[in-house]
Amino acid sequence: MNESGVFADLLWEFDERLRGGESCSWNEYLRRCNVPKEYWRDAICDLVAVEAQHRGWEESWIAHQVKLVEIAEDAELTAAVLRSVYRDQVACGRRPRWSRFSSYGINALALDLREVGEPLALGIAVGQRYRVEQRVGEGSFAVVYRAADRTGETAVALKAGWCRSEEERQLTDRLIAEECRLLHAARGPGVPHVYGLFGWKDHPVLVTEFVEGQSLSAYQENCTVEDEEAARIVMAIGRVVERSHRLGHIHRDLKPDNIIVRDGGEVYVIDFGIGLREETQFSDGAARAGTLRYMAPEAIVQDVTRLDARTDIWSLGVILYELLAGERLFPGRTKESVWVEAVAGTCIGKIAAARIDPRFKDVLTRCFAFEPGDRFPTVASFVAAIATCLHERRR
Questions:
Q1: Could you tell me the pTM of the whole model?
Q2: Domains plus CATH for the chain?
Q3: Neighbours of 163 (CB within 10 A)
């Protein structure tokens, strides 16, 4: 066998298949090409490198794949490496799929792909009709998965709370149940359809429509967002938030990662997990929830007596600014740095200096009033102000 020539042909063909969107396991590919077993290790190492270029894999992922080739006959070692691969993908912010792990022939329950305290594992069957296919994201209190509904072969989203301690389990159980009630009550445009709850190991799992599309974060990276498009998106988010406010709920974690933009342009708010009733007595854990760069000053310092609908208006203002200006409003990474920027009014100075339509600058300046009472009184009034800006631009 002319090893170098055959390998070159194999790699060229494999590269062409990847460019064409085809996907198959390396073992299956080598078997189909009748490559003798003694050449598999070197061949797979090369195939991994080719696919890594297409997928943007990190060096740690490539190293794991090479290791799996070396220990292919040892199921226990293979499982250990696969668990390490899963942890690395989660740590890198990737969304691991069961299909990438299932080809190694290890039962999903035995493999148990999950982090410490993570509620569900990839590949397992839950709730009698769902199979967990992909881990799509996590928050302070819960993890979200894409699952296949085996009765209708449609995709659903499963959300289950972290359970790293008994206290955390009790809190996340309450939040999951509360989110289910809110989704039912707030149903309408921009809110995923909710199918209900089922119990898994004595804890609730929320089942909703799986909304296909890009997160607003990805949408901003992949598209040029014009002013009118930015306004349309934020107005759509605002209408959903206003509905939840009328039900007595504040969201408290509005951010681009919790917004989905579908291919047709429809905008969805997909996470109401820490949205609680205004009269709720917040636990320490719930009070700390949120994402710093989008949190109002009263939320940063956990002043729960001042958390209300106007807290969400601050977050909506940050989203609007970032869409219009194409940059972060609060680049700080710590609570202290974001707090200093908010208190010092740094954001007001950035708005004044930004290349943004002056009409929008007036709206944004009011969103970022340090005292909640100086902001827009309701999200409806905030949305109306943006609509007025658009109307004046078009005259």
A1: 0.78
A2: 3-94 (no CATH), 125-209 (3.30.200.20), 214-394 (1.10.510.10)
A3: 17
